[in-house]
Design goal:
Elements lengths: L1 E6 L6 H4 L2 H8 L4 E6 L12 E2 L9 E2 L1 H13 L6 E11 L2 H7 L4 E5 L10 H4 L3 E4 L9 H12 L10 H4 L19 E2 L2 E2 L9 H19 L1
Parallel strand pairs: 1-2, 1-6, 5-6, 5-7
Antiparallel strand pairs: 3-4, 8-9
The structure holds S-adenosyl-L-homocysteine.
């Protein structure tokens, strides 16, 4: 899988891409991630990417031209079709189900907004899926892009050491959440690990886990 990210702040990704599972996926060559600075696709000497909103109002709006140039340039370097995503608080709220579907794509292009967001015409010019990561406002699309990259990459085959890790996880089967886990020591500050987990009786362990999952899932509804 290849993921291209268009952003005004590529440095925001540097630490994130060099750690943990996201790093391992790249080292194993299962995923290639390319960062593109939107300013590199401007034509004027000030490398201008934003301007004041028509009709007045606060903040700056990202101009369509550099975005179109960036996406067109990136698409020329991609074999096949790319699925394009634009981040916006008013997009469809991202979910594990969406992550699963995106993990099947060969190429993703992620467009991060900033300031007041995009000139609306970008949506008419380019076929984007609009995604939000929740009903709150962030300063930019970089953290949403990191969220999508992380959640999608771990679903790409062979990225996780144990393929069952992703199957058993929260939200993998509808809204069902993961069961609670415990590890050593058996007792800490007087709190003991539930006895059944030490019993070695897998039928009883599964029964207990399912009960806990159903109870918690019901609470979240
Ligand atoms: N004025 C806009 C907010 C712009 S926030 C509004 O009220 O809708 C600036 C950029 O941050 C957006 O263009 C988007 O790319 C990103 N962003 C902010 N919050 C987000 C969220 N919850 N989900 C996805 N992207 C978000």
């Amino acid at each position: 899988m290849r993921i291209d990210v268009v952003t005004l702040f590529p440095n925001m990704f540097k630490g994130f891409l060099k750690e943990s599972i996201v790093k391992r996926a790249q080292t194993k060559r299962l995923v290639t991630i390319k960062l593109h600075n939107l300013r590199d696709y401007t034509l004027d000497k000030h490398r201008k990417v934003d301007d004041r909103p028509f009709g007045g109002g606060p903040g700056m709006v990202l101009m369509v031209e550099p975005i179109v140039r960036a996406i067109e340039a990136i698409e020329k370097t991609i074999k096949g079709k790319a699925h394009k995503i634009l981040f916006s608080p008013s997009g469809r709220v991202f979910s594990q189900a969406r992550a699963k579907a995106l993990a099947k794509r060969e190429n993703l292009i992620l467009l991060c907004g900033h300031y007041e967001g995009f000139d609306e015409r970008i949506k008419e010019l380019i076929d984007f899926e609009e995604l939000s990561i929740g009903k709150y406002v962030l300063s930019g699309g970089e953290i949403p892009a990191a969220v999508v990259i992380d959640s999608v990459i771990r679903l790409v085959p062979n990225v996780l050491g144990n393929p069952n890790s992703a199957v058993e996880e929260s939200f993998s089967k509808g809204d069902k959440i993961d069961f609670p886990n415990y590890t050593r020591p058996r007792i800490y500050k007087g709190i003991a690990v539930p006895e059944v987990l030490l019993s070695g009786n897998h039928k009883e362990i599964n029964k207990w886990r399912n009960l806990r999952v159903n109870k918690k899932s019901a609470c979240l509804k």
